[in-house]
Design a protein that fits this description.
This protein is an alpha/beta fold and about 180 residues long. The protein has a single domain, classed as 3-Layer(aba) Sandwich (Rossmann fold), CATH 3.40.50.2300. The chain contains six helices and five strands, in the order αβαβαβαβαβα. Strands 2-1-3-4-5 form a five-stranded parallel beta sheet, sandwiched between helices.
Amino acid sequence: MRKSKRHSPEAEPDAPEQIPFAGSQMSVTSADRAVSGTPVEKSSVKVLLVDRFVPFHQCLRDVLTPETGFEVVATAEDSVQAFEKIAATNPDVVLVDAGLFRPDQHDLPELRRLNGVETARLVRARYPHLIVVLLATEDHEEYYRAAAGLHLGGFLPKRKIKDHLVPLLKELISKRAGGTTAD
């Protein structure tokens, strides 16, 4: 019988929590290594960002700091990397750029050429316990409808992230903790 590890008063209180990456075939950026090699506070909510625009990754890390209760544990630039990193980091929240697209071929047919809305739909279907929020550069009504129709946590235009992302995520986490979903 396999025993689960539980923290007891005798356990080391300051032992860092390591975030493992499964499989050596997965590509992990140096930024992901830097984040994954550091302890994540138990109170921090783990966030995965799926966005093809790499400079935006740092912008989001600047907003979601441990002080806010959130930690960007990994980033992905396409849908294939998104599913690899979900499996590797077990995030609580996945933020997906609606404009996500990578046209090259992949081994998994269902992951070929997925845009952000399709990626968010598939994440939600495969991992219904995750909070998924759609992000986009433009504030289009179609993204709000897609988020509602797919029962995502919501949609947020990128220009509103600095002021609205942390409150939105805290509200969604609170709803989940209270036994209700953000659906």
